[in-house]
Write a structure and sequence with these properties.
The structure holds two protein chains of two kinds. Chain A is mostly helical. Chain A is built from 15 helices and no strands. Classes of the chains: A mainly alpha, B alpha/beta.
Chain lengths: 304, 441
Amino acid sequence: MTTELSSTRRGAKAPAAVPAPGGRDEAPWPSRFRSGLKHAALILTAFVMLYPVLWMIAGSLRSQDQIFQASGLWVSDPQPQNYSDGWSALASPFGHYMVNSAIIAIGCILGNLVSCSLAAYAFARMEFLAKKTLFAVMLMTIMLPIHVVIVPQYILYSQLEWLNTFLPLVVPKILATDAFFIFLMVQFIRGIPRELDEAARIDGCGHFRIFGRIILPLMVPALATTAIFTFIWTWNDFFSQLIFLTSPDMYTVPVALSSFIDATSESSWGSLFAMSVVSLAPIFLAFLFGQKFLIKGIATTGGK
Amino acid sequence: MRDSGQRPRTVSRRTFGGLAASAAATAGLTACGGGSGGGDSGPAHLRFTWWGSDARHEYTQEIIKAFNAENPDVVVEGEFTEWSGYWDRLATTTAANDSPDIIQMDAAYLKSYADRGALLDLSKEDGLDTGGISDGDLALGESDGGLYAIVQGVVPHAIVTNTQILEAAGVPLPDDKTWTWEEYARLGKAVTDAGLPDVYGIQTEGVQGPPMENWAMQMGETLFTEDGGVGLNPDTLASFWEYHLGLAASGAGTPVTLTIERNPTSSALDQSGTATNTVAFAPWWSTQLTALAKASGQPLVLLRPPAQSPGGDPGLYYKASMYWAVSSRTEHPEAAVRFINYLSTADAVADLMLTERGIPANPAFRERIVDKLSDTDRAALEYVNSIEDVVNPAPPIPPVGGSSSGEIMTRIGSDVLFGRQSPDAAAQAFVDDLTGQIESA
């Protein structure tokens, strides 16, 4: 058994190893040149796109007077204390604000995953009164700018005495208010063959069973896309968090970051950039681990 | 210092109007909810909101603590953000009838809030005590005969001058009691011609409001009139632009591109020519001296703006750096007034605030703090005292719709500086535009 395995391994390796160097040599020169050129252009574009981020990282390591006077990305005299200064510059350590943001983000992700997938199942697979109208109404809510709804929302939450808690930011997500994700999931579910539902139905499944056993496992890419986008949008959201959270203890990362800057007096730019880099890390990680699902989720929805 | 007149305004007049309208539509809902907060028993809860930087947040909370200790029947709670978020939040909470009880107010927004009935007329409240603040300074908070806000600090225009650059260029420090715009241009040219690397004599202006208002005041004009119209003569504005175009063309002032780049509405104080030691003269609000000196690291002094003719009117006036106002929806007007009295007169406030919110309007504060100040802060305070004999009465505060003057100035001023519009045509366009904004408000 072992010899057989190792021999197949060797066998698999050998043919791959032999043509490789030859194949490379045989590649026509113009095509190699062209692909090299393409890569150079892509790398250059990527660098241009990344430059602001790189500049911010460089800025986070510069001293206050160097940030706007030194040009380029080279940091001659790194100031890592920007990070420790920034971490403790505000009323609470910066980690406190990251925890606040994380609580809201996790709450929103859970709320969106459960409520949007259920709503999407209903729109994609069930028949009910005024379904098309309701679907259109739901889509129209995507187009409402936040400025239109913020005052009525504020009054509502103020009456419920929810101001200065995380509830106004999390509870609406449990009610499937993010129409974009419902739309995304509806498109995804429409792509799943109905025969699977029908087979389950013959086996005696009701809607909840079909949803739980058939649809949900198949729509993991859409769920992952929803989770990642919810995370990024919630983590970066500034306006509603600014309005609903009034006490500094409840501040989230974007609101806390904004208190570093003050346009007409001196601002702690070094600390601001350092903490911006720190607060980018979770987003970066979410992208890094989630990008496979993200691409799958987008490629498999609506494209058929 | 949070007091330069021109800043990006994220909530426009229209947004505010829209918010106010939706508040009216939902007023019934709010009314049904009844009041929150303490009734007759227990301490009165007051919410106090301000904008600012971290240093301000810290000492303001100390002030609140001191007040709460002296007034056990009142509990003040602080809410704070930076400038742009502040107006978003205040507009939302005001529209929702849930604004904080005590509001730090800016001249640009005072009339908008007062005219819409969001602020309490303090002249009708019993027990208001603002100490020795002069009637002229108190008038800064008046609108349509009502007193809607109490001025905390005042701040005049100044030319911030880098003496180290002057010395290096071999240019003597001018006598600011007699100098004119002509001399200003000549000195600026001399500095530029001295050939110090990257250094220009003068920060050319034309895209921000305050230097233009200073110029208008020298001509005896104000941007707005008492009855809420535009008081500026287009010829005055055109002459202002022509002068600064001349500075840029002769090399005395910074080139147009640098002027646009350093416009305080779009860039930070730390990036300005004064802060980076690349101009010798630039107009600023006098209280910005400390922040500028810290960024620049070189000796800076405050000079009066040049006059149109030798010994003429330098066009100075005390601008309110900020105010205290009380929400008209407050359930505890008596306690709120007591807190405002405290902010205006208590020694503890003077000691903690120093000049961070502008040079105190209360003369007793000035006397008390003068020895505790840093050199630059003291210079700013002494500058305010030194111009007392030449200051004009403050110009009328912007009417509703008038707070967009800064944006219009930036837009049209850029066109003028880049030569896309003649100063004459642009000045007329500015006045027409601003008039339209006010009329449609």
